[in-house]
Amino acid sequence: MTRTFLLLLALSVAAFAQNASSLRTVIVFGDSITEGGALPKDQRDRVWLKQIEALSNGTLILLNEGKGGRPTNSEKDFEAMLQRRPKADALVIALGMNDSRDITTNCVPKAVAHVRAMIGKARQAQGEKFPVLLVGPTNINREALGPTKPIGAQREANLRELGSAFAQLATETHCEFISLFGVVPEASLLKDGVHPDAEGNAAIAKVLGQKLQTWLAGRR
């Protein structure tokens, strides 16, 4: 072997090791906005998780644990997910949109209690310092809500309150927090007032991707 070849080999190994050390695997536990099921089949690769992975230049792997219709009281689903995903570097909990349809006074307290329980279960499984990011739910387009239009104002108010409550919960539990309320343009919510189109997913990816990169970079 020549000296040049050995040098190139050493540089390649070093580069591989650096890339491996910067790679982060993140579980994203969410609803249909996470799942991407509302996008047309030919646009499923434009769900915001995939867009974040592409923007990360190979430093992030996002494990999509989204499910249509999922509210925060899905603790059994969450426990099953922890069994399926025994190893990860961080967890994102992105719920609340489905809870917002509950226009009783119990909506926000119940959601907070369920998410608090999920954080506890995750840290019981992964360690008490396991990084968790709570995501405040996205905004809606009240004029495009369809069957839920009559409760549009109450639902929008719930989404705002859920975001504020999740932010407080993040402080109490030493988690990170980001709000997505107001991030999705109304024009991207014309389908049903709730589910963003590909451009709306891109808006989420830009904001949440930057948050993930800076948050996880500080935890190396």
Q: How far is the N terminus from the C terminus?
A: 36 Å
Helix content: 40-55%
Calculate Rg over CA atoms.
19 Å
**Briefly, what CATH class?**
Alpha Beta
The secondary-structure element order is HEHHEHEHEHEH
Q: How many helical elements? A: 7
Question: Can you name the CATH architecture?
Answer: 3-Layer(aba) Sandwich
- The whole-number mean of residue pLDDT values reads 91
The largest sheet, given as strand count, sense and whether it forms a barrel, is: 5 strands, parallel
Strand order of the largest sheet: 2-1-3-4-5
> What amount of the residues lies in strands?
5-15%
Low-confidence parts = 4-20
* Strand runs, count: 5
Globally, the shape reads: globular
Structural class: alpha/beta
Count of domains: 1
Topology-level CATH name: Rossmann fold
CATH homologous superfamily descriptor? SGNH hydrolase
Salient structural properties:
5-stranded parallel β-sheet, Rossmann fold, alpha/beta
Q: How would you characterize this protein structure?
A:
The protein is an alpha/beta fold. The chain has a single domain (24-217), classed as SGNH hydrolase (Rossmann fold, 3-Layer(aba) Sandwich). The protein has helices spanning 3-22, 32-35, 48-55, 75-84, 107-126, 152-173, 198-217; strands spanning 24-30, 60-66, 90-94, 132-136, 176-179. A 5-stranded parallel sheet has the order 2-1-3-4-5, with helices on both faces. Helix 4 runs parallel beside helix 5 (107-126).
